[in-house]
């Protein structure tokens, strides 16, 4: 009896500590709860709803790669590394694969960086393939379902298509071996080859410490109407314009460069985060890929995101009602952007700001270390938990094979 | 789809430019040149030559002529290869002048799926016919911003803002307009209700009245019987008494709010007015002390004493738990004996130990017969009769421990103290209006035009007093000979500049200084 008393007491202490640890971003502002099933879903606790088994891969798939280039911890694809670390110490992890609902393979495919820091995807298919060969030969769980109860993190530009150029990515398609697995990726566009049904879209990684270091007092009046910093023309790769961002960013520049309401330029100011907190709207147009860390930054800083990317699928779209929070503008309506924005009624704008001020909203977009309740790690687990229980049909009969291991470009088949 | 060598090298270039690696994972076919490719090559070369001759990007014009700014079209596959070739050759052949995209019709399309309306490839850049801001929309946007900021103020700003009662002792002198205008502008920017009590030494004058009338604020302008003495000592004493007089007015009229002392030569930040809303009974803020020292010996002294240079700040001092433990005052020992005694001395003017302007009071402290006044406050009447000088509002308290430190416990300096006055013999026109025109003029030396010889003071000059208004402004260059002849014929109005110190007609309106 005494033992259980101590357990209970310990649990209370732990609960207290966790509460204090949670960073409160929306300090005094009355926030609006996203009512209904969508909003509550953000606050779900995945612990107890699923069990994840983490494969022990040799360190050449993860640790050694990271050692070779520690810059992988800071770029926008760092979610794959932090997810691994989170799962290793999470209560949803189980060491007994027989009782696991989901299987996670920690392979860092986006960590082969150029001197500039951009990841090269050319070896990633081979790396992934080699990892899958390993787990299918050492454990029986892959062959049991051919990966249908496995999930992988593929945060690169076009997800598991493993290429930075859209045409090439579409041509390659999703890696054949991953066709049955659940993919957790940043890329999302409806009716696109590289977005599989049932994938979980996550936000790109934005370093939380840097964000918290640049908060300004909440009573600073928002005096910038529309804010954007970034490229409009990618002069190195698309000097004519028209390819980059499907011409949308160039259209923004050409139409609004002399408009005093639009604070847009290609500068890299040191006060970028502070300026976002002084703006009412933040433009989040597509680039070479439709997603960008700007969305995360805008949500955390309370700036209403204006999403200009046709058919984009935003992070945790089943849990976050993006239509009510952001403004969606079709790429063909970009020339009318100022009319669209000024005709939004002020009550709607205030409501969106209240929704954005909700701390659960901001927390869901970030990957803090150590993990906190309601953050993006937990939302991924929530998403995985919502897909349970697995359908009986994913279990294959012994000897049945659905995936073609030799499909794909010849270069992919070379061992890694 | 087979890749031609050129297409592959296009990808190579792309990956080179921003990835820095030349690895490709797809097999390359041998180079196959179809007749179509050769045709496009030739066409591209021709267009390159044309742009070289014309000197601008010929392709862009053609592109925009042929294609409107509407959505993309779908093209079939063969065009795709050509586009890659063209774009590739673009960059390789004329990187400097800007390559001509010789194939204007090349909008590639790879349709991802039949239901997607998003196509990959080159799109037109949509520009509306008149891409400039519409003033009506700009106004609407400003209204939106206004609404958002109002909401922010309601959420994060001060709830239940109290009236600010600003007390300013002043007197008419040359620098009054400068100082008072500064204070006035600061007070006009305060977003809360404001009452401005201006106490003027020597009685109410039009000078002061004209300055404060422009503020649009609610002002109470009273005169004080005594005139301002010529020494700083005397001035400080008189100002204290004037401030007490103003507190008497607050008491009489039962003005409710926060009393702050806005000396007319101080500079206030806007955050000060937000911060003083937090005061409960009596608060103290940090004041920056700006000493205007023209004495060069002072700098030499300063270098020798660098290790003991104090912060020029007066205000509350707190311990680690943000409780008031003492006061920072200004260390005036370094200026001992060298400070200004008379108002126009060219020496640093020292502040008192604790300036009035560093304190804010709840106006209820000076009210009569208020029940919830704390017991550590003396009644205002007790101070009036006191023979000693009241140096700071702390004299109103029986104990100084109840003073609340404001501005993050005194860490924020919210206002600055400065004393600058003119020489005692300086004169200035009444209300700074030159009316009638000044008759004293002094010849300017070293004008860029040759000086005309001084005219003889003639009687006509006197009678033309009214018409010489534009004479000082008129600066014609004069030659020695022609003016005389001209003068005899033309009106005297075109007489050139007035020279000579006609000091006899000294009629500047003298103001007391």
From TrEMBL, chain A:
<keyword id="KW-0735">Signal-anchor</keyword>
<comment type="similarity">
    <text>Belongs to the glycosyltransferase 47 family.</text>
</comment>
<dbReference type="Pfam" id="PF03016">
    <property type="entry name" value="Exostosin_GT47"/>
</dbReference>
<keyword id="KW-0812">Transmembrane</keyword>
<feature type="signal peptide">
    <location>
        <begin position="1"/>
        <end position="22"/>
    </location>
</feature>
<feature type="domain" description="Exostosin GT47">
    <location>
        <begin position="49"/>
        <end position="344"/>
    </location>
</feature>
<dbReference type="GO" id="GO:0009834">
    <property type="term" value="P:plant-type secondary cell wall biogenesis"/>
</dbReference>
<keyword id="KW-0328">Glycosyltransferase</keyword>
<keyword id="KW-0808">Transferase</keyword>
<protein>
    <recommendedName>
        <fullName>Exostosin GT47 domain-containing protein</fullName>
    </recommendedName>
</protein>
<dbReference type="GO" id="GO:0000139">
    <property type="term" value="C:Golgi membrane"/>
</dbReference>
<keyword id="KW-0732">Signal</keyword>
<keyword id="KW-0333">Golgi apparatus</keyword>
<dbReference type="GO" id="GO:0016757">
    <property type="term" value="F:glycosyltransferase activity"/>
</dbReference>
<dbReference type="InterPro" id="IPR040911">
    <property type="entry name" value="Exostosin_GT47"/>
</dbReference>
<dbReference type="GO" id="GO:0010417">
    <property type="term" value="P:glucuronoxylan biosynthetic process"/>
</dbReference>
<dbReference type="InterPro" id="IPR004263">
    <property type="entry name" value="Exostosin"/>
</dbReference>
UniProtKB/TrEMBL annotation, chain B:
<dbReference type="InterPro" id="IPR005027">
    <property type="entry name" value="Glyco_trans_43"/>
</dbReference>
<dbReference type="Pfam" id="PF03360">
    <property type="entry name" value="Glyco_transf_43"/>
</dbReference>
<dbReference type="GO" id="GO:0009834">
    <property type="term" value="P:plant-type secondary cell wall biogenesis"/>
</dbReference>
<keyword id="KW-0333">Golgi apparatus</keyword>
<dbReference type="GO" id="GO:0042285">
    <property type="term" value="F:xylosyltransferase activity"/>
</dbReference>
<dbReference type="InterPro" id="IPR029044">
    <property type="entry name" value="Nucleotide-diphossugar_trans"/>
</dbReference>
<dbReference type="GO" id="GO:0015018">
    <property type="term" value="F:galactosylgalactosylxylosylprotein 3-beta-glucuronosyltransferase activity"/>
</dbReference>
<keyword id="KW-0735">Signal-anchor</keyword>
<comment type="function">
    <text>Involved in the synthesis of glucuronoxylan hemicellulose in secondary cell walls.</text>
</comment>
<protein>
    <recommendedName>
        <fullName>Glycosyltransferases</fullName>
        <ecNumber>2.4.-.-</ecNumber>
    </recommendedName>
</protein>
<keyword id="KW-0472">Membrane</keyword>
<feature type="region of interest" description="Disordered">
    <location>
        <begin position="443"/>
        <end position="513"/>
    </location>
</feature>
<keyword id="KW-0961">Cell wall biogenesis/degradation</keyword>
<comment type="similarity">
    <text>Belongs to the glycosyltransferase 43 family.</text>
</comment>
<dbReference type="GO" id="GO:0071555">
    <property type="term" value="P:cell wall organization"/>
</dbReference>
<keyword id="KW-1133">Transmembrane helix</keyword>
<keyword id="KW-0325">Glycoprotein</keyword>
<feature type="compositionally biased region" description="Basic residues">
    <location>
        <begin position="476"/>
        <end position="495"/>
    </location>
</feature>
<feature type="transmembrane region" description="Helical">
    <location>
        <begin position="37"/>
        <end position="56"/>
    </location>
</feature>
<keyword id="KW-0328">Glycosyltransferase</keyword>
<dbReference type="GO" id="GO:0010417">
    <property type="term" value="P:glucuronoxylan biosynthetic process"/>
</dbReference>
<feature type="compositionally biased region" description="Polar residues">
    <location>
        <begin position="465"/>
        <end position="474"/>
    </location>
</feature>
């Amino acid at each position: 009896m005494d033992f259980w008393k101590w357990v209970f007491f310990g649990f209370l202490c732990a609960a207290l500590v966790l509460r204090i640890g949670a960073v409160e971003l929306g300090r005094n502002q009355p926030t609006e709860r996203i009512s209904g099933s969508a909003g509550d879903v953000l606050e779900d606790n995945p612990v107890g709803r699923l069990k994840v088994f983490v494969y022990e891969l040799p360190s050449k798939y993860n640790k050694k790669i990271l050692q070779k280039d520690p810059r992988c911890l800071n770029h926008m694809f760092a979610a794959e590394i932090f997810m691994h670390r989170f799962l290793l110490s999470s209560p949803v992890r189980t060491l007994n694969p027989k009782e696991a609902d989901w299987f996670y393979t920690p392979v860092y495919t986006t960590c082969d960086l150029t001197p500039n820091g951009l990841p090269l995807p050319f070896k990633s298919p081979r790396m992934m393939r080699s990892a899958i060969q390993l787990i299918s030969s050492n454990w029986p769980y892959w062959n049991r379902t051919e990966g249908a109860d496995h999930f992988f993190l593929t945060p690169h530009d076009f997800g598991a298509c493993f290429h930075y150029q859209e045409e090439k990515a579409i041509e390659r398609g999703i890696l054949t071996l991953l066709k049955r697995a659940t993919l957790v990726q940043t890329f999302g566009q409806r009716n696109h080859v590289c977005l599989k049904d049932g994938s979980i879209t996550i936000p790109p990684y934005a370093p939380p410490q840097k964000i918290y270091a640049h908060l300004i007092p909440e009573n600073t009046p928002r005096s910038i109407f529309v804010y954007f910093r970034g490229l409009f023309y990618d002069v190195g790769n698309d000097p004519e314009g028209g390819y980059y961002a499907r011409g949308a960013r160039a259209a923004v520049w050409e139409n609004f460069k002399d408009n005093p309401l639009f604070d847009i330029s290609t500068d890299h100011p040191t006060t970028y985060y502070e300026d976002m907190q002084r703006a009412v709207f933040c433009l989040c147009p597509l680039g070479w890929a439709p997603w960008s860390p700007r969305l995360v930054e805008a949500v955390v800083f309370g700036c209403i995101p204006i999403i200009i990317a046709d058919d984009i699928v935003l992070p945790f779209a089943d849990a976050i009602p993006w239509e009510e929070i952001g403004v969606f503008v079709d790429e063909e309506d970009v020339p009318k952007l100022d009319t669209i924005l000024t005709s939004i009624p002020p009550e709607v704008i205030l409501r969106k700001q209240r929704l954005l001020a909700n701390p659960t909203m901001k927390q869901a977009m970030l990957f803090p270390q150590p993990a906190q309740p309601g953050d993006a790690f937990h939302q991924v687990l929530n998403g995985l938990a919502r897909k349970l229980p697995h359908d009986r049909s994913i279990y294959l009969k012994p000897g049945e094979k659905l995936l073609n291991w030799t499909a794909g470009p010849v270069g992919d088949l070379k061992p890694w | 789809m087979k890749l031609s060598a050129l297409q592959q090298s296009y990808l190579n270039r792309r990956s080179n430019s921003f990835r820095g690696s030349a690895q490709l994972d797809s097999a390359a076919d041998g180079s196959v040149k179809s007749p179509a490719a050769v045709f496009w090559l030739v066409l591209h070369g021709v267009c390159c030559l044309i742009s070289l001759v014309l000197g601008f990007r010929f392709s862009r014009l053609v592109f925009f002529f042929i294609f409107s700014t509407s959505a993309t079209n779908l093209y079939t596959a063969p065009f795709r290869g050509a586009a890659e070739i063209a774009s590739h050759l673009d960059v390789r052949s004329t990187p400097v002048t800007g390559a001509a995209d010789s194939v204007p019709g090349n909008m590639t399309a790879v349709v991802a799926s039949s239901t997607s309306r998003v196509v990959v490839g080159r799109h037109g850049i949509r520009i509306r016919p008149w891409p400039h801001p519409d003033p009506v929309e700009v106004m609407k946007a400003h209204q939106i911003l206004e609404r958002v900021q109002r909401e922010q103020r309601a959420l994060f700003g001060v709830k239940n803002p109290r009236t600010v009662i600003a007390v300013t002792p002043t007197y008419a002198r040359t620098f009054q307009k400068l100082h008072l205008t500064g204070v006035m502008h600061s007070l006009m920017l305060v977003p809360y209700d404001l009452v401005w009590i201006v106490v003027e030494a020597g009685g109410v004058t039009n000078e002061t009245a004209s300055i404060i009338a422009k503020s649009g604020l609610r002002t109470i302008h009273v005169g004080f019987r005594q005139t301002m003495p010529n020494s700083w000592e005397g001035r400080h004493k008189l100002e204290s008494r004037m401030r007490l007089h103003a507190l008497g007015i607050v008491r009489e009229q039962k003005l409710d709010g926060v009393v702050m002392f806005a000396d007319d030569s101080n500079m206030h930040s806007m955050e000060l007015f937000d911060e003083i809303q937090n005061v409960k009974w009596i608060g103290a803020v940090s004041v920056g002390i700006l000493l205007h020292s023209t004495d060069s010996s002072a700098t030499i002294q300063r270098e020798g004493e660098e290790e003991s240079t104090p912060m020029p700040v007066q205000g509350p001092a707190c311990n680690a738990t943000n409780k008031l433990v003492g006061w920072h005052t200004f260390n005036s020992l370094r200026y001992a004996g060298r400070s200004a005694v008379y108002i126009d001395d060219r020496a640093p003017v020292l502040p008192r130990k604790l300036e009035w302007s560093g304190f804010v009071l709840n106006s209820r402290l000076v009210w009569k017969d208020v029940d919830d006044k704390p017991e550590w406050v003396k009644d205002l009447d007790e101070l009036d009769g006191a023979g000693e000088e009241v140096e700071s509002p702390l004299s109103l308290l029986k104990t100084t421990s109840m003073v609340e430190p404001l501005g993050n416990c005194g860490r924020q300096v919210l206002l600055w103290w400065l004393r600058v006055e003119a020489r005692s013999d300086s004169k200035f026109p009444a209300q700074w209006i030159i009316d009638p025109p000044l008759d004293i003029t002094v010849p300017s030396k070293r004008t860029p035009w040759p000086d005309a010889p001084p005219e003889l003071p003639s009687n006509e000059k006197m009678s033309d007093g009214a018409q010489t208004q534009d004479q000082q402004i008129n600066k014609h260059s004069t030659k020695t000979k022609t003016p005389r002849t001209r003068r005899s014929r033309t009106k005297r109005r075109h007489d050139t500049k007035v020279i000579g110190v006609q000091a006899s007609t000294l009629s500047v309106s003298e103001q007391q200084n």
